[in-house]
Description:
Layout: E1 6-13, H1 25-34, E2 35-43, H2 59-73, E3 77-81, E4 96-97, E5 100-103, E6 106-110, E7 113-117, H3 125-128, H4 131-157, H5 165-172, H6 174-193, E8 198-201, E9 208-213, E10 219-224, E11 233-238, E12 241-246, H7 256-267, H8 270-280
Helix pairs in contact: 1-2, 4-8
Amino acid sequence: xxxxxxxxxxxxxxxxxxGTYGSRASELYHYLKSVKPxxxxxxxxxxxxxxFSKHYWPKYHMKTVKEIISLAAKxxxxxxxxxxxxxxxxxxxxxxxxxxxxxxxxELILDGKNTWFFxxxxxxxxxxxxxxxxxxxxxxxxxxxxVNVFLNYLCKxxxxxxxxxxxxxKDNVKTAVKYIGNFEHTAAMLARKxxxxxxxCGHIHYPEIKExxxxxxxxxxxxxxxxxxxxxxxxxYNAGTWQxxxxxxxxxxxEAQAADDNELLMDMNNxxxxxIVMKEFQL
Length: 283
């Protein structure tokens, strides 16, 4: 059978949060099955150790991990850059197992540009100095995703389009918009001061490719690979050009993601769902 995978020089994914209810593992699995990268860069928060539960590890979460290992076994160089939700792995930075290498950051020269790959949590000064708030926020975000799964289940029953509560918050709440802008500018400034011409981050779940003008410091190419919770996005590099990839929301999902969502809903009784909805909306 002819291999239908696309050849890609570099693929960057981040913020998959495997092991949590919000992870769109089936879409990620189908995406990874569609590409044949020379290099796969996992830019942090791939497995979420903060929210990980031994009671919730659906089959597509495991299949995604196995597919990454399979790509490495077939010759793909895999760099696992540690993030804040998988910071447990930072103590293993420098460890290599076959083609898989754990690092805290990565530097590559691509098309003449010194490019810095970094998860990005180090740029978040507020979170850096308020660890308990960061973890509380993560729990709240995961609860919001739970509510979103339930609401989308109801939308499907009545024939309505799906909604993303977290995306609406990011797009419409001024503090969220300001936070994203500050993160991007801070990342660009630090990278430029270290003589990088491009930086690739994750962390904020906001996919982007753009030039940031730093006035007297010149400009820098800022990129963010987004996430596999809301955006199902990745960065792809080929022949000197970066592109932002977005996986179709329904591709490969009819049975796969439905199975994961049903597993989640079956795992929660109606009383638990009602309590979460009431808490999130302060009713």
